[in-house]
Design goal:
about 280 residues; Cytochrome Bc1 Complex, Chain D, domain 2; 13 helices; elongated; about 60% helix
Length: about 280
């Protein structure tokens, strides 16, 4: 009997660390795979959103669960804290997610466990020195944005969903936000984090298994920084292009109508047998 109890005790001791490890791993995977890492860090300073270190101590867990499930709903309902965070972080809406209750629990447990680790003071300080970019980075970033250059892993070009009004020669898609001032709002670290680990559902799905390389992220960030420095213009090139398109369209329509009119005028006005019928009448 003692041997049996001893074996059970040993088994429990062995299983407990394994179970704890699985929970931590699961929480870490949720943080990475559900887009949290694209906007937040833990003990490494703010990105697009706030640093989540000790957030489980600062906020009520029920509030955190509700906010994670539907931040838009809480903001729309006028939750004071949710609205304040939304305004503080450049009105960037945290996207909705499909986390289960278990995933949210594991995520919060992982954040709490990670927060308890010794803070790396060097990482916590925001980098004051700006990343250096050159003309080649800007040029390559523009080509990647427009699709002139393909991404290494064949992800879709940015212009298929986004537009940049500051660049008058570019005419992008309207599916997602205009990126003209994105660099000013998110900064270097925020842009890089978002490109490395997309948080928004459509973007995340578009680049699933097609991640951007470090060089591509560097060049795109350079392009977005350059775009943000340009003053919004009247988009004269775009207006000129649209005017030419309208003129060509009208000319094409006019030529088409003229051709149809000529065909209509030369049409047969009577049946095919009219001449035979009239000739037959004359002979009778």
């Amino acid at each position: 009997m003692k041997i049996i109890i001893l074996k059970i005790s040993v088994l429990i001791l062995i299983c407990l660390p394994i179970s704890d490890g699985l929970t931590q791993t699961s929480g870490k995977q949720v943080f990475r795979n559900k887009g949290c890492a694209g906007c937040h860090t833990i003990n490494e300073g703010k990105l697009i959103g706030p640093d989540l270190a000790n957030i489980t101590e600062k906020r009520n867990r029920k509030w955190l669960i509700n906010f994670i499930r539907s931040p838009k709903k809480m903001i729309d309902n006028g939750d004071t804290l949710a609205v304040r965070l939304y305004n503080k972080y450049n009105k960037v809406m945290m996207p909705a997610n499909d986390m289960t209750d278990e995933e949210i629990k594991n995520l919060l447990d992982f954040i709490a466990q990670k927060s308890s680790e010794k803070t790396n003071q060097q990482n916590t300080k925001q980098k004051s020195t700006a990343t250096a970019y050159n003309a080649n980075n800007f040029s390559t970033g523009k080509q990647l944005f427009t699709g002139e250059l393909l991404f290494m892993n064949y992800g879709p070009s940015c212009i298929s969903c986004h537009d940049i009004k500051n660049m008058s020669s570019l005419h992008g898609g309207m599916l997602a936000k205009d990126l003209s001032t994105t660099y000013k709002r998110l900064g270097d670290r925020g842009i890089r984090a978002l490109l490395k680990n997309p948080a928004f559902p459509v973007m995340k799905e578009a680049y699933r298994n097609k991640p951007l390389t470090k060089a591509e992220i560097h060049n795109l960030t350079a392009f977005l920084k350059k775009a943000a420095q340009k003053k919004p213009g009247k988009q004269t090139a775009g207006v000129k292009f649209e005017s030419q398109f309208i003129i060509v369209g009208l000319l094409g329509a006019g030529i088409f109508i003229l051709v149809i009119s000529l065909i209509w005028l030369r049409r047969k006005k009577h049946s095919v047998n009219d001449e035979i019928y009239e000739r037959q009448l004359r002979t009778e």
